[in-house]
Structures are given as C-alpha cells and as structure tokens.
Amino acid sequence: MSEEKTTSRRDFVMGAATGVGVGAIGAMGLYSYTPAAYRRFAKAPRGNREEFGAVRRVRVTNISETSWFDNGMLMGDIMAAGGLLVNQYTIGWPPFGNGKGIAKGSFESGLESIRKMIPGDLDEAWALQTKLGVHPENPGGFSCLIEVEALDGTIHKYLLDSGWSFDWMDKAFKREKIDQMLAAHDIEALFLSHEHWDHFWGLPVTLKYDNRIPIYVHSGYYKEGLQYIGASGHKGKLVIQDKPIEKVIPGMVVIKYDVPIINRVFGETSLAFNIKDKGLVSISGCNHQGILQCTAYMRNNLKYDNDKFYGIYGGLHISPFEDWDPKYDDLVIALRQYEFEKIGCNHCTGVITAHKFVERGYPVVKGTARFRSKTPDYLGNGDTIEF
Predict the structure, then answer these.
(1) Which parts pass through the membrane (predicted)?
(2) What pLDDT shows up at residue 328?
C-alpha cells in the first residue's frame, strides 16, 4: 500500500471520528453539496485532455438496482454494529454471517462456512447463510449489463457489478439471460465499481457461469476483498487499476476515484464513453465521489465530441436513505449546468431525488417499477436506456 493511500485512509478515520474534515464529508459523498465543490468546478483548469476515441452507441440493461429492500433495517444494522466506520465484514450480514449476531461476524468465519459451496452450489450456500446471517431477507444487489457498439459495428458486452444476495442476483441474472451470456463467454469483462456489500458480495453468481471472466477493481480493495475474489472461484485476469484512466476499447475508459467510503471501503471507479457526434456518457455504481467531482474530473481530463455531457446512468448518491436535506436542492438545481440530454438514475439516487428531477423537468428516462423497484420516476429492475 502506498504512503499516499495510507494517509488518505487515516484521514478518513480521523475526520469521520470527529464528524469534521474532508474524510467525513467524502465518506458519504457529501463534498459535492458544499460551496467548495462548486468553486472548484468553476475554476478547475482544463489541460491536455486525453483523446480516447468514440463508440456508436451504448445500451444499459438494469439487472438489479435494488441493493436492499428496507432502508431502516439496513441503517439500523449499521448503527447497531458500531456506526459508519465499522468494517462491513464484521456486521454479520450474509454471506459473512457466523451465527453470532450483529457486530460479531467476520470475514474468515463467514467465508469458511460457504467456501466449499461457492461458486458451484449457491443455493446451498445462501440457505446456510440465511440461518447464520443478520437480516438475510434484506439483501438484493446492484448490477447492470452494458452493451457497446463500436464504430465498426462490433458489439461488446460488459457487466458493472455483481450484486449482493446469491438468491436474488441469480434470479435476476436468469430473468435478463445474463447467465446464458456468461456461459457463452459473450460478456467480455466484469467491472466492480467498489468493494461495498451490495455491489461486490454477489460475485460468486457471476463466476458460477464464467469463472474466467476478466475482472477490473480499484486499487483500494482490502485484502479481504481480493481474497474473496479468489475464494469465489475466479480463474481469469484480474486488473487492479492503479492509474487514473484505464482504456478498455476505443471510446470507453474506466476512471479511478480515490475516495473514502462508509464501512471501511476505499475508492470507486466509473465508466465513461464518448458517443460519436453526441458527447460524453458516464455510468456509475454509486458515485460516492459525488456527481460534481465525477463530472468535473471527466470534463477536465477527457476529450469528447461536441465538448458536451450527453448522458448519465446509475446511482448518483444523493439522499440514498431518503434523508432529504435542503442543501440537496442546491445540487439538483446545479445539475442543469451539465445540460444532459438523458438522465438514467436509480439505486442510491434515492426516490425523493428522482421525484425532484422529474418535477424540475429534467430529461429523466422513466421506468416501469417492476420486480420490486419502487417508482417509475427512475429506471427500475429490467428497464433499459440507450445512448
């Protein structure tokens, strides 16, 4: 671990412990709501921006945006386990439950209980964890399929994240035929946006169908996360991204953000696409770095058609637990400066936030509220968007 990364994590703990400082603000993605963020966006220089090619179109299928089903239950568990700084692997949630209850779980004991079952027998593994884990009925997961058409007409398929609950995600994969695509090796890579439970812990579901799929992760993954990738049966290439921008194919890059996140997680990656003759599209898991930080970095470091932000998809991390604060209204208003033509939001964007986007007349692509998604004001489970 580099000294820079060590310092960043130490600052996070110190800042969050005292309730002040960049660490505490960044942990919840709240920096984007502060006046400092607006000033930084306005004054940040645009240097030698990187040209990375273009693609013809991008289509996103929402496999699951419902990471959990009850906000109160999730936050209650986190608070009972010790608060926002507690190590996620010790909370006791499946698949790392050990039967000892809240705040008494451990990565080692939870993994040992299912090690011989993953990824081959996920039904048995999850059935056992429903007995050992805390609130096993609450996990769902976040994952989406990204289909990219290159300028020569070639179609590339990728997964962003692998969800949480083995049971929920396996059913969601089958509903959208992701299992068949993986088994046929039609999906070229899995991008894990960050190490959080609802994006990462369902990894065995992906590896059940293709254990050689290349996986991209942020360099901030802890030893438990890297060990879990191997224990889940991964036999393919693992790309640990340490540089700010990772090119995948012409017109597609992975952007690395070094940001401290709740429950001892560090770093998130987002995907960026240059749509020919349209502009930039950003696709994120949670956007813990904050929407202003995310777009400001892309604006200052990438070169894209028309010098325009065309669209966005995924979690925007604005009031994810529906705890609306007036300062969030400033952020909603500020989004107009990007002049997005399409906004595909869900997951940790929050239902209230989605409603406010619609009320302000933003170009939100609505959904169908199927498969336990909560509102048609955002793209729900099974819905699609095309850029």
Answers:
(1) 12-33
(2) 83
